[in-house]
Structure formats: C-alpha cells, structure tokens
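Bit of a strange request maybe. I'm writing a small parser for structure token strings and I need a real example to test against, not something I typed by hand. Could someone generate the tokens for this chain?
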Amino acid sequence: EVQLVESGGGLVQTGGSLRLSCAASGFTFDDYSIGWVRQAPGKGREGVSCIHPGSGNTFIASSAKGRFTISSDNAKNTVYLQMTSLKPEDTAVYYCSVGYMGCFKTEYQGQGTQVTVSS
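Reply from user aminoacidic:
Good idea to test on real output. This should exercise your parser:
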C-alpha cells in the first residue's frame, strides 16, 4: 500500500521559510518522479517542483526558481521542498505527487499540507 506522509506546512510572514517533507512507502522510491503540486483557493493546480530520486534530475517552476529547492534522502524515502523568500502568492495547499511516467503525472497523492504566507 502506497503511503505519502506530508509535513512542514504552516503560517509564515512574507520573506519567511518553510521546509515541506514527503515520506513515502509502498513503492520503489528510485523509480518514480516525486514532486509538489499546489492549489490555491479558486485556482487550478500548479506543479511547483519535482525530483527523480533515481537519476537526481529536478524541475523547478519559474514561479519558484531561485527560492525553492527540492531534494531527496533516498535512505529515508523522503523528498523535501525547502521554500525561502515566501510570498503571499505562495499560499496554497501543497500536495506530494508521485508518478511513474514523469513529473506531475500523478498516480499517488498525499493528503496535502497548508502553507499560508501573510503579508
């Protein structure tokens, strides 16, 4: 059974930082693309960042470039999203997304963690 346990969301002020974690189990970690998709109220889903732990390849959306960093600890089957210089427009529910066919081709998704950035 696939399990994705997200943590690290919260309320921060503009310019603050948060680190999201997605602890995964139930599938071969190195074989999948694992990333973060966010959804703000009244808006569509946006793929923010993704990593393929087996190859180390990463993707960062232009909205996050220079501020967010994705990494993986393959020994712990965990993906991290370090978010810095947070802006109010980063406010959203962040979901851990797992897909064999590539970034944001979601087969499995976590329950989501709320990130709120106050101005």
